[in-house]
Amino acid sequence: MKVQKICRKWTILDLSLEAYEVRGSLTADPLPEDAVIVLSIIKKYSGIRGKYLVMETGFDHNRTIDAVKALVLRNIVYVDFTNYPNFRECRFYPK
After folding, report:
1. Which CATH class is domain 2-94?
2. HSE of 82 in the Cβ direction (CA atoms, 13 Å)?
3. pTM, whole model, 2 decimals?
4. Domain residue spans in the chain?
């Protein structure tokens, strides 16, 4: 059980390393469909908390995290990590 929890964590370090490696190549790629849906919700409800973002999308937790990662890596969305590592309490803002 503990291993599954660790695997699902979305760490700032992982995200920042991915950003340095991938950001340049992502700018030309189109956004995934899930990311477009999540972005529209974040634009509509600026400052939305993670738990409400998951509820609004109707996606499961991991699918929502993957969509948010795609937006953050493209520098489209800002994440307030005040309540990190709890994704459900992080707030999301459009840039």
Report:
1. mainly alpha
2. 7
3. 0.69
4. 2-94
